[in-house]
Specification:
The chain is an alpha+beta fold and about 500 residues long. Helices cover about 30% and strands about 20% of the residues. It folds into three domains: about 140 residues, PH-domain like; about 120 residues, Phosphorylase Kinase, domain 1 (2-Layer Sandwich); about 180 residues, Transferase(Phosphotransferase), domain 1 (Orthogonal Bundle). The strands form six sheets. A seven-stranded antiparallel β-sheet has the order 4-3-2-1-7-6-5, with helices on one face. Strands 11-12-13-15-14-21 form a six-stranded antiparallel β-sheet. A three-stranded antiparallel β-sheet has the order 16-18-19.
Length: about 500
């Protein structure tokens, strides 16, 4: 068998890989080294050293039956999962297949299953990578159960992260850029004060937000990686999106070009459509809740007001009055149509630089939304943009433009939805993160002192309140576990 740490790169380049439990393809940098096909989020020349995962090629079957679609299937001898990859062109397809088969057909590579399994486990340990939702048919320490590995490497806590800088703040607490001390990965850590959650009666909405981020997988929806707690705070560790809030970019540009408005709204449309397909209403769509990733793609964040399990009651309707006033839909009962109203407000704001209805008097604003407000467009605005916004801002939810209507609307005629979903369309703006990946965040946040986050105040929670927070602990596909803080009842409870 070859050395698992063989650094000779036999073949490298970009391909798209189908996710383990979603139908989306994610673009990754691949390298064949030794008996393994490693994949990275970015090209290794960018400085990324730790792979996102790897595919054992020893004894694998390479299926090229879908060559017409430039797809390669790898059926691993050691894992139940079949990998599906898509190559950019016919020349690269031939190169990858030849390189893979050179490993799989080599009689000196991985003939013995026991030895191959040892090699896989060693490679996993060396790279601190446990497989991307793979199940070992051999069982043992690499087998997964649910979202966490049976074998735990360590317990996770605030001490596992280096807090680098504050990037956002709200009434709930703050968001910080952090570094995982174990892996070196960068995340966004949302710190929520338990007292604020309790005082605002936000236990259920906080659980709901976490549940959505744990279960939904989509390229334009932020992912949750960890959730843990201290006696004072709940921490949600998410993707760090270094491109900054879309609201910040809108302020800088004053208004977006047609190209930018079309691109960003199309990506967010796909995120909202995916939520709706999973019976979730978002209910708080606005530029402040959309953040650009390092490549310039729009990502939906903040699910604190989202509603799940629509079909379980009220006939797919929810009656809670919530959201940002300028983006609220008219009417009492809100189904999925409420998000398409907010989507229309957002598209208008992208193109005009402001919401269509506004008043310092909240009641007057609601009146404008309900009945009196009229849409105003400049003569220079493209007819298809006017038509899209007008049909989205229909006060009757029954006739308001729906998902199918949006997909087929002339405003999006130039959008290839399949390519957009695969992130194969180049964004109109690529963040420059070469020297400072917080440059797209407001300095009122980034100038804050981060040291106060390490201060722990004694809890004053009842046993039931403590148990509510305890149930929120979560680790996503990683070899770590969560240990809740001890319950120390307050004398006043």
């Amino acid at each position: 068998m070859s050395n698992v740490n063989d650094d000779v790169v036999k073949c490298s380049g970009f391909m798209t890989k189908k996710g383990a439990d979603v139908r989306f393809y994610l673009r990754r940098w691949f390298e064949i080294r030794g008996n393994f096909l490693f994949y990275y989020k970015n090209e290794r020349s960018s400085g990324e050293m730790k792979p996102k995962g790897f595919i054992p090629l020893s004894g694998a079957e390479i299926d090229t039956s879908r060559i017409s679609k430039l797809k390669i299937k790898i059926d691993s001898k050691f894992f139940t999962r079949t990998y599906e990859l898509k190559v950019d062109n016919a020349k690269d397809y031939e190169m990858w297949v030849k390189a893979m088969k050179a490993v799989t057909n080599d009689p000196n590579r991985g003939a013995d299953a026991v030895e191959a399994k040892k090699e896989i486990e060693k490679e996993s340990k060396n790279n601190k990578v446990l497989f991307d939702r793979q199940k070992s048919v051999q069982g043992g320490s690499l087998m997964k159960k649910g979202s966490t590995f049976i074998k735990r490497k360590k317990e996770i806590s605030l001490n596992d992260f280096e807090i680098l800088v504050v990037v956002g703040r709200g009434s709930f607490g703050k968001v910080m850029k952090v570094r995982d001390l174990d892996t070196g990965e960068i995340f966004a850590m949302k710190a929520i004060k338990k007292s604020t959650i309790l005082e605002s009666n936000m236990i259920e909405s906080t659980k709901n937000e976490q549940l959505i981020m744990r279960t939904i997988r989509h390229p334009f929806i932020v992912a949750l990686h960890y959730a843990f707690q201290t006696p004072e705070r709940l921490y949600l560790v998410q993707d760090f999106l270094s491109g900054g809030e879309l609201f910040w970019h809108l302020q800088q540009d004053q208004k977006f070009s047609m190209e930018k408005a079309r691109f960003y709204s199309a990506e967010i449309f796909m995120a909202i459509e995916h939520l709706h397909n999973n019976d979730i209403i978002y209910r708080d769509l606005k530029p402040e809740n959309i953040v650009l990733d390092q490549n310039g793609h729009a990502v939906l964040t903040d699910f604190g007001l989202s509603k799940t399990e629509l079909s379980s009651k009220h006939g797919n309707q929810t009656y809670t009055f919530c959201g940002t006033p300028e983006y609220l839909a008219p009417g009492a009962g809100h189904g999925k149509e409420v998000d398409w109203w907010s989507f229309g407000i957002m598209v208008y704001a992208f193109l005009m630089g402001h919401a269509p209805f506004y008043s310092d008097n909240t009641m007057k604003l609601y009146q404008m939304i309900m009945t009196t407000g009229r849409l105003a467009f400049p003569e220079t605005l493209a007819p298809e943009a006017k038509d899209l916004i007008t049909k989205l801002l229909d006060r009757d939810p029954e006739t308001r433009l729906n998902a199918a209507g949006i997909r087929n609307h002339p405003f999006y005629q130039s959008i290839d939805w399949d390519k957009l979903e695969l992130q194969e369309i180049t964004p109109p703006f690529i963040p420059d993160n070469s020297d400072n990946d917080t440059k797209y965040f407001d300095t009122m946040f980034t100038d804050e002192d981060v040291r106060s986050e390490s201060i722990v105040v004694a809890p004053s929670l009842s046993k039931k309140q403590h148990d509510d927070f305890d149930s929120m602990a979560y680790v996503r596909s990683r070899g770590k576990s969560v240990k809740p803080p001890p319950f120390n009842p307050s004398p006043s409870k």
